[in-house]
Amino acid sequence: MIITIISPGKTKASYLRQGIEDFAGRLKHAVRLDYKEIKVKGQNSKHPDPQKESQSLLAHIPRPSYLVCLDIQGRMFTSVQFADLLQREENQSTRHICFVIGGPLGLDQTILAQADLRMSLSPMTFTHDMARFLLLEQLYRAYAIKNGTGYHK
Questions:
Q1: Rounded CA gap, 153 and 147, in Å?
Q2: What whole-number distance in Å separates Cα of residue 106 and Cα of residue 29?
Q3: Is the pLDDT at 153 greater than 70, yes or no?
Q4: Is residue 77 scored above 90 in pLDDT?
Q5: How far apart are CA 144 and CA 153, in angstroms?
Q6: Listed residue (92, 136, 132) closest to 116, CA to CA
Q7: pLDDT for 110-142, tens place per residue?
Q8: Dist CA 17 CA 114 (whole Å)
Q9: What does the pLDDT read at residue 50?
Q10: Bridge-partner residues for 117, per DSSP?
Q11: Contact, 50 vs 101, CB < 8 A?
């Protein structure tokens, strides 16, 4: 299976970049990972436009794929449930899962409407840079659960 993570802009904080690189490197031993930070053309950082952002992100979603949009109003999972979701998709021969993370204002309805799953990482609010790190850590944890390594406990 291939997992793609798509998000707008670059991760600014060096400590988050290091964490993202660390978990992306660890994940490559379990699954093929494609991590994309997309430059949104015509985007104003002081007044972001979620619709423009979503159009740019949509252009990078591999087709066909199981589309998971991170959304504060999405479904929440425990780590074990998340691992079960990934296993279920593998068992159903899903070849590609694509996770999309929005910018500071979240994802526009144009992309949310296409999601196979809307997922929330927490009822708390995180920066989109932190969401990238947390998603990668949870993916790594899910594969550790699936493979029975000691990382989860």
A1: 13
A2: 30
A3: no
A4: yes
A5: 10
A6: 92
A7: 999 999 999 999 999 899 899 999 999 999 999
A8: 29
A9: 77
A10: 68
A11: no
